[in-house]
Amino acid sequence: MSESLVETGQVFVKRVLEIPPTAYELVRLLNTTEPELYLVDLDDGESSFETVRRIRERSDSTAIIAFGERNHRAVETAIMAGVDSVIPFPVQMTALLTAIDEAIREKTGGLIENLYAFLPAKAGSGTSTIVMNTAARLANDLGRKTLVFEGDLRSGVMDIMLGIQHKGGIQHALERAEEMDSFEWENNLARANGAEFLLTGRDGGKALPRWHHYHRLLNFAKPRYQMMLVDLPELVNPATMEIVRRAAATYIVCTPELAPLRLAKLRCEETAAWGAPGDRIHVLLNRSHPGELGAADLEKLIGRKVACVFPNDYRTLREAMSEGSIPSLKTPFGRSILDFAGQLAGVDTPKSSGLLKKLFG
Asked: How many Cα neighbours within 13 Å face the side chain of 219?
């Protein structure tokens, strides 16, 4: 089984112990590697239960998965000793990977305070535009080291919108998440307008990433950036759903048309059903026109706080995109982006938004 585990490249195991470790070996292992996962064979009998008890005495954050004959008494003893999950033998790889995902989620399910997720109520709502420009303002105007994850692994277009060519990308970074280091990170990173990006690679990836790939990648990036923005596609899978659960805030982007407005309400309900606390779910209204639906109207309709309203300013965005630049702060859209970036960073931005509030509030 250890050979199959290594070949998948999809688990947190660096070393498989063929026999239960001695007390000394176990202490040394826990002190030097801080394992996130321990696999234990129930067929080793009492020695396996004693190993589990020792691990639990020293670490409550290590996920422990047991396998072996599904004997009711053995399973009960394993659970009482501190095992998180028991899977029958012979082990099926799908069942094992599912058990690993669930165990790791349970042990690492906390809030990531510098992580922000963005979701479109409907495809084409302008989420990527908002994320890219917010990242640029955070980096350039507010001095925050900012990273953008492009979550659409199939059809991401940020490189086109930014007018840049890049090597590597987020698929490669996810595939290499287990062995990520500074050199590998730089090979997959792109830079534009002061911010850093993990963009969709045009050569795709080998397989759809699982949650633990994102977990590893986020853990690597978390201490290196003050702000991490994730631009998620309309369709969310079980792996990216975990990003929403852990984000300090999730922003649903919608436009004033009837269909996106109704879908925004449903998307907020979906996000809450995934496990995101209600006070972390907010709405962004994009492409708003003066005299149309305002923030107060939208809050009544959707039942969620509207964090910011962005005016419809196609010409400004087209000109900025053609130059690979950021919309000027002299434009309504540029000003609204800076105001929103200030909200995320928790700082006041220079006063000039009175007109925006008058027009769009």
From this structure: 16
Q: Is 230 helix (H, G, I), strand (E, B) or coil?
A: strand
- For the whole prediction, is pTM greater than 0.85? no
State which amino acid sits at residue 313: D
Place of tokens 């250890």: 2
Average pLDDT, the chain: 83
Per CATH, 2-107 and 112-360 having the same topology is answered yes
pLDDT at res. 209: 85
CA distance 62 to 68: 20
Residue ranges of the chain with per-residue pLDDT less than 50: 1-18, 352-361
Nearest alpha carbon to residue 104 among 32, 53, 38:
38
Q: Domain 2-107, what fold?
A: Rossmann fold (3.40.50)
CB 285 within 8 A of CB 255: yes
CATH topology of domain 112-360: Rossmann fold (3.40.50)
3-state helix/strand/coil string of the chain: CHHHHHHHCCCCCCCCCCCCCCHHHHHHHHHHHCCCEEEEEHHHCHHHHHHHHHHHHHCCCCEEEEEECCCHHHHHHHHHHCCCEEEECCCCHHHHHHHHHHHHHHHCCCCEEEEEEEEECCCCCCHHHHHHHHHHHHHHCCCCCEEEEECCCCCCCHHHHHCCCCCCCHHHHHHCHHHCCHHHHHHHCEEECCEEEECCCCCCCCCCCCHHHHHHHHHHHHHHCCEEEEECCCCCCHHHHHHHHHEEEEEEEECCCHHHHHHHHHHHHHHHHCCCCHHHEEEEEEEECCCCCCHHHHHHHHCCCEEEEEECCHHHHHHHHHHCCCCCCCCHHHHHHHHHHHHHHCCCCCCCCHHHHHHHC
> In terms of DSSP bridges, do strands 195-198 and 190-192 run parallel, antiparallel, or are they unpaired?
antiparallel
Q: What are the boundaries of each domain within the chain?
A: 2-107, 112-360
